[in-house]
Sequence to fold (679 residues):
Amino acid sequence: MATEVHQQEEPSTSNADKMRAMNRLPLMCNDVEKTIKELSVKDIKSTQLDTMRSKVRRCLEEVIDDEEYGQTALEHVWHSCYYSLICHIRTSISGWGVEQKERCSREISVLTVELAQLASLHKKRSALISVYMGDLRRYAFMLFSSDRERRLAILHYREAVATDGHSGLALNQLGLMKQDTKMTTALLYFMLAHLAERPFHGAFGNILALLTRATSQHRKGRLLLLLMHCFTSSRIIDFNEYRTKWIDQIDTELDSHQGAHVAFNVHLLSLASACLATKDCEEQSRAVSTMLLDATGRLLRGIEELVASESAKLLKKGERRRRASDSNESVHTDPEEARNSKNKLNNDGEVTDYWVAGYRMVREQNRLNGIEQDDDVVELSEDESSELVDSSVPPSDEIREAKTLLVALLHFTIVTVKQLYGEHTPTSIRFEFEQFAQRISDTLNSFMLGDRATRAELNFYRPEQVDLPIWYVTTEDAMLLLPTLVRRLIDTPEVPILFDEFFRFVPIASNKDMVMKNMAKLRLACRAKQEEARALLPVYVIPEDNVVLDHLPVLRDLVNDGQLRVVIAEDTLRMMDKIKKGDIRAREGIRWLQQGICEQGDRLEMRKADSVLLCAEDVAWKVQTTKKSLATKPVTVTILTTDILGEQYDEKPLMVGAKISRENVDQFQTRYKAALKEY
Fold:
């Protein structure tokens, strides 16, 4: 009976001890604060202060693990015993010498060691304590400009994120460390802090403040301009201009194998869309997410090209190996030895290629579903495909870039699925997202390990890299997040992708109205037609003589818009010089040409040529040889004429040579204005 009474009274006694500790702790912290305020510069290292902090820590250890009081007590101790000392140092450091600064730096290191000991004893609060240790190092960096302190602060913050990935505090502090050196990286950290499960409530204000600072510093990066417009304005016309420039930049960077930079942009814009959605900016959020959805086709195509390039390398390597093997077999005639060698090869190559095995599975599934396949596809053998899954061999640059882009697409899918596939999302956007989900499922299957399909989400890379923190997107090893994001993708209920031995696209709303689907298809067809019309706009415009004389205002508008370059052939100038005495139009044209070349030389120029056609051929040849990014356009140079060419050339110009078209000036002006209105 006595034992039962003792067991019932023990919890109440423990609670009483916690209450007494909570009552003593504020008084002890106030005493420490008073002592810190009375310290002189020479007494930063004080035995009395060390003793008082030691007593405070012993009192804190009685309640630090308590669910109700633990975090509050830790925060109180931090502000009173550590942060107040930092504030005291900051107010009096201006007149310090080198010796005093070194003594202060050592004292900050001692404070960090005290917190590290506390974190090792109380794992439950280790994430928050790691943030406090990072803050101490950050303040030391601000006070003494030591790069070592900066690196240590970042390490402590990253440790806090790895320990507690649901808190936004450490992510916000990482953004503070990066905002002076890498502004876009800092923005990404602030957005992650705002979107965390336990968000840091000042993170959105930090985003706006950093964008305002970028505006005041006249930063002109396309990504920053796009973000500044999204967070500070709602003019859809300006957004379309930024959107077009950013998508054009993606094409250029993918062609130059800058996939890591493109992936980072996708990460940042995906998070920006989600942040805007939390602040009732639905229109801006959907505009950004829809822009990214339109760009996914380019990214998936880039991934396919990278994988195809690596496959071609493996085929060539396998062919050389087979030739060497055939030559060796002609020398070794022992059948038993050949059989043993073959068995050993099969045992070593249990794991098949990352994409080939999955690709075979998809081909077999498509065959069963009646989908036609290309007959000219060459598959890799087991020996050739097993090379890329050897964990001791690092992935090639192509595979690394492909995985980095795939990580960005998975992150985009997880973050923006509610904006693009929500209940109130327009049907046309939902239909586009379903098409993207189908393609991303096929891409994931192509990266899947064949004979370990039941663990495919763990086998995109090494299993020990499954639960990496999200800040890896800011590093060169962003591809290591692939297993983590695959698992999140599967666990996200809004994403219409399931995993059952392989990835399958399963639309959530399969009973859609066919009328709405047809409207969505019409919208896609209209957009494709607009893209085609825009692609047919030339880079250079060369007017004939009559156009310069009779349609000079049209040429002025083209130059002022800055979308095209106007080139005047020297033969046209000679013609106007001959008739300038009797024709006011020629005099106006010469004055405009002289003034425009001086003031707008980047958009108006004159070239030596005996005719307009020769001038066009010269311009087209130089573009083809020097500007590879423009050489892919179907039309590079357009000759403007006053001749009537017929109604069949209202939408598509008359081609008179390779990359050269001839078009009526009025028809061209109508098509040009329509393209500007749409984009």
In short: The radius of gyration is 33 Å.
